């Protein structure tokens, strides 16, 4: 209802501005006038089951000092970013808290759209938070967001078919070939569609081969030997007979469904698949997990960090309340609730030790282990361009030619980092 | 014309007509069918639903998002149509009836605009509307809609106006009617069908727009249905909103179907006269 | 005396004409002319909203960047291909549909009514219908054609985009052509028939020549319209697998990438391309733009 009241009020205000009326009502008055007192903190966050309950709890905690209104963003990460970016670029002050995919922090911080965390707020967020997720919320040594939940991919496999999970990429391909020769389900399902999911796999494999795509400071395109090995690994999978037929079209949920339909022996995916599998007893019995296989045997379990950070908009008119709301939305209790009810891994280490986590989260140790050696995606304000280019150049994975593709990546990524290139 | 009664010829035409009907209706029926499918049967790939449900329609009207978009769509399209038709009528009357300098230039300019690549305007309009505070408002969409609807309105209307026997106006005046009476009693009834037809065509045009709608809006304050459709959320992070998108798609197709059913003759007349005889 | 009055009347008529046209002309100019100039100005700058500090005037650097970029030319090729193929198919099918609507002896009203549905339906709605029809999880057409995920295969996706475009615009094409068809005198056809002309001869020798102006106008309209293709691609593939059009790419650079400099450069280039297309049609083929002859031909 709050939103319904607000729409016309805001439009009216804009109209007056447009007309250049000298006596424009102060934006503050106009916005508060349309509400029945109190401060509303508008949170923009992606679709997450049960997040509304977390919001409700924080509203209770706030005890009337402010009210958190949850606005759900579209499903696709690109669409979420597009919506927020467009409003921020237009100087919209109606957004207070923004749910940022971990890869957007640099861009939003560099453009001056999100407020820096300082003093006590900063200390509160940093205390007890895992290093990997915390790094995603920083840009140029300043903290711009609070990690809400993290994510790492694991290798999920059929316990009935695979007695001992593979540790390296090539071992996994060999096992699939072996299963195939015995006419058993042998498909390896992976997010290979032309989108961010493919970039995640490429980044994971590159890190698992000890390589880098982009220099640490985010200014130079490296695409070193490790990255070339990762390209070869992607190609090996895509051209193997055990590759899924819909590999070049598969996103997270397609991968999960393929596994649940019983056609796949392996899937590389986020932990949500475990919670989803519980609804299907046949699958729940068979699904097992292991650390993400690496190219280099010493790097097993290196995987890209995903997840969401919460940031406060620089245009927000209720910053103190917004910071407080964020702290509540991501505190240990909220994170535990979300982990158990929505399957999203916490960013606060102590939550993993909570006894209540044991049953719904049996793979918590594997996740925690991986988080400690996780690969952070390249941090750069031009990440959107970098990601678009990588997924375009790597699509479809079967057509990768490691050396040539690497060369192309180097040239085009450098342009993207300088924000000079053209987006495909 | 005796051939018309031969059964063979009739059968042949019937067959051809059926092909046309199938061609035009299949995609529409498909989205209609999807909108009535239950979540479980959504992926059964059957053209006709095996289990019927109204749940998708209940769902889209149970949140604020779609009803707001619908209100935006209707409001924006109606206001843009009204203004475009009024301005277009004035200009078309002048073009059809009066002689004045710049007439050819006006016709040329509106022709240019009719063919203008809209995407070329998105960048500058985004910037201009951002600085004027028009971004994500109704006027922010209404203005470009009027602009691109005006050429259509002017062509269609001037074609209609040329057909009106204006001598009647003179005759009425000779019979003692004042100019106002002559206009109201004689010209207005003759011109009304043309204006009405134009209004339908312009409305369809505004109703249809997608590019401006996604580029110049960012919230439910002004987002229209075509844009809202592409931003629908599923009930969970990993579920496609196929059913609800289909239901919403059906809802915004209803006005089009009604127009077509009731005003087929007018729409055909409007499109053919405006386009070629102009 | 009377001469003076006449010129007074003429003046009043001129004034009235200008006043009546002024509002329409002003709106059209305000919304197009100023943005176009502004767009040209932006295209000469390095201006990325994410790097606001680096804004500077760079002359034609953006044009060099875009025109030497392979993604731009890929999109340009895709746009041209879709335009050429879909307009060609539409012309043939549109002509057939026009003949059916004009000459059918049964169910004329029904045929004309349903044929208007594709014309009136919201493009995005139709695009969703096609997308779900070809989706490998929900679609009835994928199995029918034994395809797996046709929307992610470049050739198949381009085919589906063309199909969606053709389906939507054939009725519009047919209506434009039907207007021309109505101008063909019946007695001319009857005379040809008496002279022993076959139906095909009547079509090519009598109908087509009379309809030439209508055909050229329809082609002009549809070509320029098809070149702007955006909605269908946005919904069907979002431009993945190199299926993006120039409009799609402009949108990506501008709205997704927030690079106003590059986005504006692409806008200007599309504008130039469309202007050239229109010029070729009018000058080379002699298409008479509707209205440009003030209806004198009638």
From TrEMBL, chain A:
The keyword Signal applies. Keywords: Signal, Sugar transport, Transport. GO terms for molecular function: maltose binding. Pfam families: SBP_bac_1 (PF01547). GO terms for cellular component: ATP-binding cassette (ABC) transporter complex, substrate-binding subunit-containing. Residues 1-30 form the signal peptide. One of its GO terms (biological process) is maltose transport. InterPro entries: SBP. It comes from the Bacteria. Belongs to the bacterial solute-binding protein 1 family. This is Multiple sugar transport system substrate-binding protein.
Automatic annotation (TrEMBL), chain B:
This is Multiple sugar transport system permease protein. CDD domains: TM_PBP2. It is found in: Cell membrane. It is a multi-pass membrane protein. Its main location: membrane. Keywords: Cell membrane, Membrane, Sugar transport, Transmembrane, Transmembrane helix, Transport. InterPro entries: BP-dep_ABC_trans_perm, MetI-like, MetI-like_sf. Gene3D superfamilies: MetI-like. Residues 70-263 form the ABC transmembrane type-1 domain. Belongs to the binding-protein-dependent transport system permease family. Pfam families: BPD_transp_1. GO terms for biological process: transmembrane transport. It comes from the Bacteria. The chain crosses the membrane at residues 12-32, 69-93, 105-126, 138-161, 182-205, 245-263. One of its GO terms (cellular component) is plasma membrane. PROSITE patterns: ABC_TM1.
UniProtKB/TrEMBL annotation, chain C:
Keywords: Membrane, Sugar transport, Transmembrane, Transmembrane helix, Transport. The keyword Transmembrane applies. GO terms for cellular component: plasma membrane. CDD domains: TM_PBP2. This is Multiple sugar transport system permease protein. It is found in: Cell membrane; Membrane. The keyword Membrane applies. Belongs to the binding-protein-dependent transport system permease family. InterPro entries: MetI-like, MetI-like_sf, Sugar_ABC_transporter. GO terms for biological process: transmembrane transport. It is a multi-pass membrane protein. Gene3D superfamilies: MetI-like. The chain crosses the membrane at residues 16-41, 71-101, 113-133, 166-185, 268-289. Its main location: membrane. Residues 76-281 form the ABC transmembrane type-1 domain.
């Amino acid at each position: 209802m709050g939103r319904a009241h607000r729409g016309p009020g805001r439009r009216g205000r804009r109209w007056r501005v447009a007309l250049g009326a000298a006596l424009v009502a102060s934006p503050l008055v106009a916005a508060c006038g349309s509400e029945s007192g109190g401060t509303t903190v508008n949170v923009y966050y992606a679709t997450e089951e049960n997040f509304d309950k977390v919001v409700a709890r924080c509203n209770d905690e706030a005890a009337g000092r402010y009210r958190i209104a949850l606005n759900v963003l579209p499903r696709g990460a690109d669409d979420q970013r597009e919506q927020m970016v467009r409003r921020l670029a237009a100087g919209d002050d109606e957004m207070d808290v923004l749910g940022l995919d971990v890869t957007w922090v640099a861009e939003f911080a560099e453009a001056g759209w999100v407020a820096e965390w300082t003093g006590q707020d900063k200390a509160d967020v940093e205390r007890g938070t895992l290093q990997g997720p915390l790094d995603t919320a920083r840009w140029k040594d300043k903290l711009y967001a609070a990690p809400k939940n993290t994510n790492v991919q694991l290798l999920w496999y059929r316990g009935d078919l695979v007695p001992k999970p593979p540790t390296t990429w090539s071992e996994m391909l060999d096992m699939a070939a072996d299963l195939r020769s015995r006419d058993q389900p042998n498909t390896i399902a992976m997010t290979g569609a032309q989108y961010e999911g493919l970039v995640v796999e490429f980044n994971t494999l590159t890190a698992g081969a000890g390589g880098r795509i982009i220099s640490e400071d985010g200014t130079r395109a490296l695409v070193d030997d490790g990255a070339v090995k990762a390209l070869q690994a992607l190609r090996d999978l895509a051209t193997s007979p055990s590759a899924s037929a819909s590999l070049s079209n598969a996103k997270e949920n397609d991968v999960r469904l393929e596994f649940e339909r019983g056609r796949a022996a392996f899937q590389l995916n986020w932990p949500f698949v475990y919670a989803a599998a519980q609804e299907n007893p046949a699958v729940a019995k068979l699904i097992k997990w292991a650390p993400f296989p690496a190219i280099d045997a010493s790097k097993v379990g290196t995987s890209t960090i995903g997840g969401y950070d919460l940031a406060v908009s620089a245009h927000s008119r209720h910053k103190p309340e917004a910071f407080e709301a964020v702290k509540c939305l991501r505190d240990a209790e909220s994170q535990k609730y979300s982990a158990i009810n929505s399957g999203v891994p916490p960013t606060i280490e102590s939550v993993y030790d909570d006894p209540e986590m044991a049953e719904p989260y049996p793979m918590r140790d594997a996740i925690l282990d991986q988080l400690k050696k996780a690969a952070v995606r390249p941090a750069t304000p031009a990440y959107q361009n970098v990601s678009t280019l990588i997924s375009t150049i790597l699509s479809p994975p079967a057509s990768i030619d490691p050396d040539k593709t690497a060369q192309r990546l180097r040239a085009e990524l450098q342009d993207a980092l300088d924000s000079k290139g053209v987006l495909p | 014309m005796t051939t018309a009664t031969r059964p063979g010829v009739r059968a042949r035409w019937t067959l051809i007509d059926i092909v046309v009907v199938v061609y035009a209706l299949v995609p529409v029926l498909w989205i209609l069918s999807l909108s009535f499918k239950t979540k479980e049967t959504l992926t059964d790939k059957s053209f006709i639903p095996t289990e019927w449900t109204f749940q998708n329609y209940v769902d889209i009207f149970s949140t604020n998002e779609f009803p707001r978009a619908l209100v935006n769509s209707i409001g924006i399209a109606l206001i843009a149509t009204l203004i475009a038709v009024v301005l277009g009528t004035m200009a078309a009357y002048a073009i059809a009836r009066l002689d004045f300098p710049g007439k050819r230039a006006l016709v040329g300019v509106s022709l240019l605009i009719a063919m203008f690549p809209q995407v070329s305007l998105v960048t500058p309009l985004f910037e201009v509307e951002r600085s004027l505070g028009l971004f994500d408002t109704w006027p922010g969409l209404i203005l470009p809609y009027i602009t691109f609807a005006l050429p259509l309105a002017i062509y269609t209307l001037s074609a209609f106006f040329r057909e009106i026997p204006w001598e009647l106006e003179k005759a009425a005046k000779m019979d003692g009617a004042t100019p106002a009476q002559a206009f109201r009693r004689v010209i207005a009834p003759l011109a009304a069908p043309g204006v009405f037809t134009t209004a339908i065509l312009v409305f369809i045009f505004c109703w249809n727009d997608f590019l401006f709608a996604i580029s110049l809006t960012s919230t439910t304050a002004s987002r229209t249905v075509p844009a809202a459709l592409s931003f629908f959320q599923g009930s969970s992070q990993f579920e496609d909103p196929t059913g609800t998108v289909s239901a919403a798609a059906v809802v915004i197709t209803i006005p089009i179907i009604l127009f077509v059913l009731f005003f087929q003759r007018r729409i055909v007349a409007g499109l053919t006269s405006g386009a070629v005889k102009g | 005396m009377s001469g003076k009055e006449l010129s007074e009347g003429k003046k009043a008529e001129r004034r009235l004409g200008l006043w009546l046209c002024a509002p329409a002309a002003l709106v059209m100019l305000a919304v197009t002319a100023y943005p176009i100039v502004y767009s040209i100005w932006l295209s000469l700058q390095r201006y990325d909203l994410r790097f606001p500090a680096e804004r500077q005037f760079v002359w034609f650097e953006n044009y060099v960047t875009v025109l030497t970029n392979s993604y731009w030319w890929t999109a340009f090729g895709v746009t041209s291909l879709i335009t050429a193929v879909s307009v060609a198919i539409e012309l043939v099918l549109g002509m057939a549909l026009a003949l059916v609507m004009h000459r059918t002896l049964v169910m004329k009203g029904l045929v004309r009514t349903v044929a208007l549905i594709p014309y009136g339906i919201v493009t995005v709605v139709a695009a969703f219908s096609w997308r779900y029809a070809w989706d490998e999880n929900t679609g009835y057409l994928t199995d029918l054609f034994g395809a797996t995920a046709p929307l992610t295969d470049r050739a198949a996706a381009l085919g589906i985009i063309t199909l969606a475009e053709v389906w939507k615009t054939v009725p519009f094409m047919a209506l434009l052509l039907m207007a021309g068809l109505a101008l063909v005198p019946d007695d001319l056809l009857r005379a040809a028939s008496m002279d022993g002309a076959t139906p095909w001869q009547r079509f090519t020798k009598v109908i087509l020549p009379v309809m030439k102006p209508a055909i050229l106008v329809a082609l002009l309209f549809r070509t320029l319209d098809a070149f702007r293709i955006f909605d269908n691609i946005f919904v069907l593939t979002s431009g993945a697998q190199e299926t993006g059009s120039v409009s799609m790419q402009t949108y990506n650079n501008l709205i997704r990438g927030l690079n106003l400099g590059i986005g504006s450069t692409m806008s200007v280039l599309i504008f130039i391309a469309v202007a050239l297309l229109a010029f070729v049609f009018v000058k080379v083929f002699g298409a008479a733009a509707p209205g440009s002859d003030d209806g004198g031909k009638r």
